[in-house]
Design a protein that fits this description.
It is a single chain. By secondary structure, the chain is α/β, with parallel strands linked by helices. The chain folds into two domains: about 150 residues, D-Maltodextrin-Binding Protein, domain 2 (3-Layer(aba) Sandwich); about 100 residues, Periplasmic binding protein-like II (D-Maltodextrin-Binding Protein, domain 2, 3-Layer(aba) Sandwich). Helix content is about 30%, strand content about 25%. The protein is built from eight helices and ten strands. The chain has an eight-stranded mixed β-sheet with strand order 4-1-5-10-6-9-7-8, with helices on both faces. A two-stranded antiparallel ribbon has the order 2-3. A hairpin with a 6-residue loop joins strand 2 and strand 3. Helix 2 crosses helix 7. The chain starts with a helix and ends in an 18-residue tail after the last helix.
Length: about 260
């Protein structure tokens, strides 16, 4: 009994630990306009960086940005190498078994082709039987497979072939070089991509599989979760959250109405 009480007390102290004054934030700078690196200065910038700095200011903390691969985010939080990460990871019930999320954005998946092929692929079903590139470390492979099963295979058309890419930048390269007929990318980044390469890409259809994205935090770091949630909600309440979305080049529908913790559960 005494051993159980000691374990319970230890867990309670861990959960009640104060928010660290120095937060190490994982960043994978290949996700514009959320996370990117200025080619001239090497400085990390983007919506996530600006939001992180604003949240840190409201929680009385300072940020240390640490470049981390997308695939290592969850493990890095679990082992304490980083305190949290942004980078638009989808908040899913499966991931919530390992870490927690402070939800902060909404996005869907959308197909994109070369502008020269816009008439050939005028609607999403035109992509049935074609090769679609996408980041293999995200939910895109499963999302495209599910869409293909419902809209291609169920209609008696050939399935989409998914081409694994390292990230969104690599997927666009596969598209440009003709190794893919189209690519799938989250809708919240597409307006920025099109603004940077005017006339190069065209979207096909509307976004599908709309999901909520979260700031990844350790499951036992409840004080940090609560502090981030309250700070984000305060930004929503005073209008600075939507203002940052606009100035960062994100679509208006990227905004969520309320800051929640583990909203996918």
């Amino acid at each position: 009994m005494m051993k159980r009480l000691l374990i319970a007390a230890s867990l309670a102290l861990t959960a009640a630990a104060p928010v660290p004054k120095q937060l190490t934030v994982g960043v994978y700078p290949s996700y514009p306009p959320l996370d990117m690196k200025d080619p001239a200065t090497g400085q990390l910038r983007g919506f996530d960086i600006s939001l992180g700095q604003a949240l840190a200011q409201r929680t009385g903390s300072k940020l240390t940005l640490q470049e981390t691969s997308f695939a290592q985010f969850i493990a890095s939080v679990e082992t304490g190498r980083i305190d949290l990460f942004f980078n638009g990871m989808n908040d899913t019930a499966v991931r919530e078994k390992t870490i927690s999320f402070v939800d902060y954005l909404r996005s869907g998946t959308q197909f994109m082709v070369r502008a020269a092929d816009a008439k050939t692929y005028a609607a999403p079903p035109d992509l049935c039987g074609k090769t679609v590139a996408g980041s293999r470390s995200t939910n895109l492979p499963q999302q495209v497979a599910s869409w293909s099963a419902e809209h291609c295979v169920a209609a008696g058309k050939p399935a989409i072939h998914f081409l694994d890419a390292d990230n969104n930048i690599d997927a666009r390269l596969q598209l440009k070089q003709g190794r893919a007929d189209a690519m799938a990318q989250d809708s919240l980044t597409i307006p920025y991509v099109q603004s940077q390469e005017a006339g190069v890409y065209a979207t096909v259809g509307e976004p599908f599989d709309t999901t909520v994205m979260g700031i990844g935090v350790g499951r036992t770091a409840t004080a940090l979760q609560d502090a981030l949630q309250k700070a984000l909600q305060s930004m929503m309440d005073d209008g600075s959250y939507k203002a940052l979305i606009k100035t960062s080049g994100l679509p208006e529908n990227a905004a969520i109405a309320k800051a929640t913790i583990d909203g996918a559960a």
